[in-house]
Write a structure and sequence with these properties.
This protein has 129 residues and is α/β, with parallel strands linked by helices. Helix content is 20%, strand content 29%.
Length: 129
């Protein structure tokens, strides 16, 4: 049996705004509606299903593997929006990107504080730290 991640729910204070933010910053098609979710489809068949939640939202981490050109586009959108970004998940290196495994990576926050990450090489795939 093959096991694949199909979707995950992303809890949000404003699901449409959060879904739109992620789709725009990553250069994806606009969210689609399914039942009570706003769904962002990723290239590998996985979807992020945004749903509203009242009260505090536990921060989560979502990492996206992107190509070199897409990384440049993500960085341009981060700059255009004036978002703070970091090279590390602990957020100790503001305004920097990392070069783990010979690629590039960046962390930034979504509207509800979820830590979003764009990387050009999977961690552990080789190259230098």
């Amino acid at each position: 049996m093959t096991v694949e991640l199909n979707h995950t729910i992303v809890w949000s204070s404003n699901q449409m705004a959060s879904a739109r933010f992620v789709s725009e910053i990553l250069g994806l098609t606009p969210p689609r509606r399914f039942a009570h979710f706003d769904v962002v489809d990723l290239a590998n068949g996985v979807s992020l299903d945004f749903a509203d939640k009242e009260g505090p939202i536990a921060r989560q981490h979502y990492a996206f593997l992107v190509g070199e050109d897409e990384f440049d586009a993500v960085m341009a959108r981060i700059a255009q929006r004036g978002l703070t970004y970091w090279a590390d998940p602990a957020r100790t290196m503001p305004g920097e990107i990392n070069h783990y495994d010979g690629g590039r990576g960046v962390y930034f926050e979504g509207p509800d504080g979820h830590l979003l990450e764009a990387i050009t090489r999977p961690y552990g795939s080789g190259g230098s730290a």
